[in-house]
Write a structure and sequence with these properties.
By secondary structure, the protein is an alpha+beta fold. It contains seven helices and 19 strands. The strands form four sheets. Strands 1, 2, 3, 4, 7, 10, 11, 12, 13 and 14 form a ten-stranded mixed sheet that branches. The protein is globular.
């Protein structure tokens, strides 16, 4: 079992929980994921199995896409719907212009977060400081200083139906459904809280669904239940994305049998004619289309050095 599984993570499970379940279903110890999803979140979780776990470094930085529900009116101590409510005095006031809060008006607030922005990682996150995960410290009531991180938000838009952008709840809160396309490491809960600050009210993330990780979309995903059914019918291979296809976004080079042997021994491959720049990652494949290794091209020396070798 070598390849990727594109799973639709359910709410209530950590990414580690999903990895543990996949290990049991596929009967393989070497299983990992390429980007954490919070327990309350759902959607695309790319799982690598077998020797394909060596490819995680080429996927973890991929662009992500989300659909989220931002709730205005109060903050929570976790920044999402699982936390305790923090209602501040100003949060009881009506949002500016809520009676006619059209998309044109909220667009101005959303636009402020597009492009390269600095984000302070939330305490309730898996980010590590001094070897400790922040959420572990937060659960102990500790708060530590976090340095802002530069992230890129390519798209941040309202996806509510035409007309009113905000939905009104019985408890006085207001909901806004948004779509976000962003770089790896962007915290959507922080976007929600910061947008609330722009509007002069508390805010938190009520729902979060990852709809894309790199080139893998929610339409490609299967549930854990479907994976179990495939395992029971001895059809697991149908669920796997091959190692070569995992990195289909990279250029490829088909190797001769002699070059395959060189690469498997960690030896460089000379390559005279190419337009690749130095540092270009390249898929190195056998004559049968199997991914043998991922190499790095050196334009000066005109060679490819095997960086990660997959073939056994």
């Amino acid at each position: 079992m070598n390849g990727a599984l594109i799973l639709d993570k359910p709410a209530g499970l950590t990414s580690h929980d999903v990895v543990a379940r996949v290990r049991k279903i596929v009967g393989e110890r070497r299983v990992g994921h390429t980007g954490t999803l919070d327990p309350f979140a759902t959607g695309v979780l790319v799982i690598l199995v077998g020797r394909a776990t060596r490819l995680a470094q080429f996927l973890s930085g991929a662009e992500k896409e989300y659909e989220a529900l931002i709730r205005f009116g109060y903050r929570t101590d976790t920044g999402d719907a699982t936390g305790k409510q923090i209602r501040e005095q100003q949060s009881h006031a009506k949002l500016p212009g809520t009676e006619s809060f059209l998309k044109e008006e909220i667009e101005a607030r959303l636009a402020a977060f597009r492009g390269e922005i600095d984000q302070t990682p939330p305490m309730y996150s898996a980010k590590k400081i001094a070897g400790r995960k922040l959420y572990e410290l937060a659960r102990r009531g500790q708060e530590v200083e976090r340095k802002p991180v530069r992230v890129t938000v390519s798209e941040f838009e309202c996806i509510s139906p035409a007309g009113e952008s905000l939905y009104f709840n019985d408890d006085g809160a207001h909901d806004l459904r948004v779509r976000v396309v962003c770089s790896a490491g962007t915290y959507i809960r922080t976007l929600a809280e910061d947008l609330g600050k722009k509007l002069g009210t508390g805010a938190h993330l009520a729902e979060l669904r990852r709809t894309r990780a790199g080139r893998f979309k929610i339409a490609d995903a299967i549930t854990l239940e479907q994976l179990s059914e495939l395992a029971e019918s001895s059809s697991l291979s149908q669920a796997f994305v091959s190692p070569d296809n995992i990195l289909a976004h990279l250029p490829m080079l088909d190797l001769s049998a002699d070059d395959v042997r060189r690469v498997m021994n960690g030896l460089d491959i000379q390559l005279e004619r190419t337009t690749w720049p130095t540092g270009r990652l390249v898929r190195l494949r056998s004559g049968f289309g199997e991914l043998v290794a991922v190499g790095i091209y050196d334009e000066t020396l005109k060679l490819i050095h095997p960086n990660v070798v997959l073939a056994s």
